[in-house]
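Structure request: Alsin-like, Pontoporia blainvillei.
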Amino acid sequence: MDSKKKSSTEAEGSKERGLVHVWQAGSHSVTPERLPGWGGKTVLHAALGVKHGVLLTEDGEVYSFGTLPWRSEPAEICPSSPILEEVLVGQYVVTVATGSFHSGAVTESGVVYMWGENSAGQCAVPNQQYVPEPNPVSISDSETSPLLAVRVLQLACGEEHTLALSLSREIWAWGTGCQLGLITTTFPVTKPQKVEHLAGRVVLQVACGAFHSLALVQCLPSQDLKPVPERCNQCSQLLITMTDKEDHVIISDSHCCPLGVTLSESQSENQAGTAISPSTETLDGKGEVFENTVVQNELPAATELNVGNVQTTSVETISFPQDVMGTPEISSARSIPLYPDAQAVNEYVQKLSDHSVRENSENGEKPVPSQWKPFAFAFPKL
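Returned structure:
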């Protein structure tokens, strides 16, 4: 028994689904009443203009009601009951929209139909004040070859303009006014144009007021929205500075990181220092310690230098970097005077070698040949 009552209740509820109730300003009753003359068809979507409205039924049919001055028959200008838009029969409309004095519909195949007042080109028909019946609107993308018809998902209508949201999530506009969002000053626009300001963005929904428009746009992925740092990553100073000078403000973004410069210089010094390896060695077992520098130049080997009698109170380290052409150049780690060229260096080395051999011969010592190290020596301060 309870199941029978439940099924009867659901049947009654299904009959109530999609019923249309209206109430008007200035009427004596503020209670919504059933739309006069309307049959029992279920309504899925309704849209209202200033003095008219459009109904979309569940079987894809469209009905207009209210004041319809664009209709060709006098009896249809102020009908007592909603009028079926016969041009759309068999098209299966999926959504409808109304502006202040015009209407639009979109079929399941993405084709747009417009009708109503057209004084501002809002129905996409040139040189015609009224469009009495639904008229198909041709929307094609000129950027494709051959031209491809644009399929539409949604319509939005203002008083003098219309917006269409395509299947590729782009906005197409026609009519009159800056609310179109088009780069033009020539109105009316009767051929739908793409809104280039939102090209490349994903538009989710469009809406129109009487003389303004709105687009709901999908947010960009978080990884594409990289925040701009306020301070330098190295010296932590502000990247943009603002200076208040009397009656004007100076904003500057010319940040020069001193720490970044220091790091660069130190890196270059480290790279140059890879050819210099300071070390200490003991010569001839006499306990005399000399500061040596290993140089990459390969000069003719003679004998091991013995400069035990040379004063080494102040020793400078000399390096000989190789230039691009292979000619040794001489530079000082402590900015001492540079030698003229490699020949002068070789002569000086030879003098030191001869001096060492002569001293050994005078002292009766037999010169002992030794292995020549990779040009490791030190100079007394000149």
